[in-house]
Structure formats: structure tokens, C-alpha cells
Design a protein that fits this description.
Blueprint lengths: L7 H40 L11 H4 L2 E6 L2 E6 L13 H7 L12 H21 L4
Antiparallel strand pairs: 1-2
Helix pairs in contact: 1-4
Length: 135
Amino acid sequence: MASKGFDQQQLDRVNGLLDTLVRVSEKEVPKLIKKTITEIQADVKALAPVSRKGPSRGNLKTNSIYKEVSQYGGKVYVDTTMTDPRQNGFNYGRVVEHGRAGQYKTTRYFYEPVKKRIGLLYEEILAAIRSYKIK
């Protein structure tokens, strides 16, 4: 008579796969996230336009692109409100990315590098999972 449910080999295989995912998430993912966030920040800074005049002169490349990284997450953001003397919450970085009623030239410098690097992060995590030995 055949046994009901999983056999021991199937359970061992599933447990081995779960153990591999835990090891990858604890050891590899935090390193990959930190690397990706740093690369996104560098890409955004490299693509950010430089205003040659006015209060935002060079502001995007030098002072306004920040990053925060934790074990399983991170963010890159642009905040020119701290370094731009204009009031009323004017954020030059956002205006450059999205434009503003024809007053400012739209220059895409933020979202494309983020999309590219997130795709690469996904591939690197899959590669890390594949490279671990499964019991």
C-alpha cells in the first residue's frame, strides 16, 4: 500500500531549498542591496544636469542626491529643498525630472537608472540562489 502525503526525500528536498533561500537572504541579499543602492546613487549623480546659473547651480550633482541603506532595503532620493534657497517647497530635482509648465527643461536622470539597476538586482539575487549548494 502506498503511503499518503510526502515521502521523506521530498520533505528533505523542500527543506534544503528553504534553507538555501534563508542563507542567501541573510548573507548575499544585504550586500547586493547595498551595492545596488550605491550604484543607483552614482548613476543618478552622473546623469543629473548641471544648472550653470541661478540658485540651483550644480545642486543636483553635488549636494542633493542622498541614499539610505538598511539590511533588506534602501532608497535613493533627491532633495534640493535643503540646499536651494527658494521657498514654498520648490524641489528643483523633481522639476528637472518632470518639467514645469514649460519653464524648465525636462531631463530624465532619475527613473531610468533606477529601473535598470532594479532589474540587475533581481538577476543577481537569482544568480546567488542558483550558486548556493542545495542539500
